[in-house]
Amino acid sequence: MLDKFKIKNILKKTEYFYNRSDYDNALIFCNKALNLDSRNIYALYVKSRIMYIQSHYDLSLELLDEILKIEENHDKALLLKGRICLELNYSKQGFECYANFLNNNTDFNLFFNEITYFSFSDDNSKKKLALDLCNLYLEKYDSYEINVWKSQLLYRLNLLEDALFGLNNLINIKGDDEYLYSIKTQVLIKLGKYEDALTLADYSFKLYHNYGFLYDKAESLFALGDYESSKEICNEILGSQNRIYDNSAKFLIAKIYFAEKDYDKSLMEINDAIILLRNIVDEDSQSDEYGSSFNQYYFFKAEILFKLNELDKSDEIMDCLIEKEEDAKYYCLKAKILYEMNDYEASLKFVDKTLDLDSNCSHAKSLKKQIEKQI
Predict the structure, then answer these.
(1) CATH architecture classification, 243-323
(2) What's the pTM?
(3) CATH topology of 1-105 equal to that of 243-323?
(4) Which partner from 173, 202, 208, 251 sits 20 to 30 angstroms from 340, CA to CA?
(5) In CATH, what number does 1-105 get?
(6) How confident is the model at residue 2 (pLDDT cuts 50, 70, 90)?
(7) Neighbour-count burial for 273-312, b at 16+ CB within 10 Å, e otherwise
(8) pLDDT tens track for 205-214
């Protein structure tokens, strides 16, 4: 009786420290509890969580196996073991744990938490695991929410035809839905179905007055070559009280002027777009979405500067972008800049880097022929 009372107090302290992310002290009290009761499931689970957080995956798995010997369908142990196994590429064991969870538990939120965990990774292989978890859930249960999430994942993984198929099925079930329409317009734009995207964006904006649809409309018109109408809509967005799409509208106007070969105006607009984006988020943000937006804007600025023959400025931007990540289009523009600077050997190195990443890049192939004539 005394030990039970003592363990209860120890576990309270364990929980206190664990909830405050003081894992060293939480671990001390876990071990104290386990010295009194080696089969205490709560202490074993908290210790396994701490081992996982500290990247001691093998130790965490050992503790989780101990829990599952005591309680074979322990929900949280199955989920954590499944997660660790997938992260260590033990796919078969991982999905078996998740399947066992679904066979014995109907807690949607616990399972959905695992899907979102893998979904928000910057790594596409993790997003694919999230997609597999969606499919695993849908094999057993029908879920509108999981189907919506699945469609979003398909879009983010660029599996656009599958995403469109899923979205159409969901819209047939649900009818008008702002969120589904927002994903569908983006899918249609990426698929190059601009007329369909324009029709849906126009309908959705009238229905919901969401400026995201108005921007989708402007983007579709730009792709269809109707620059004036696209510019008018961008200016309507900029003149509204809605500030969310200001930087995107400025970027699209910059692209319109670029397409019209008015590079000076294009440069002014992209500079405005960068300033507006900085007002939303810090340039060093770790956010995948905003980080990629900054890269996209600066790359476009480098392209404009290249057209304006401001090669040093364009080159400086490209050096910064290349330092952040490997990308065929970055290497290709860098090669073109160096070629115009008459540094043919350096240009050739970046052409080869471009072709290593994208063997079908026509610009790089053409530039290589030009360089070979010069060397």
Answers:
(1) Alpha Horseshoe (1.25)
(2) 0.85
(3) yes
(4) 251
(5) 1.25.40.10
(6) very low
(7) bbebbeeeeeeeeeeeebbebbbebbbbbbbbbbeeeeee
(8) 999 999 999 9
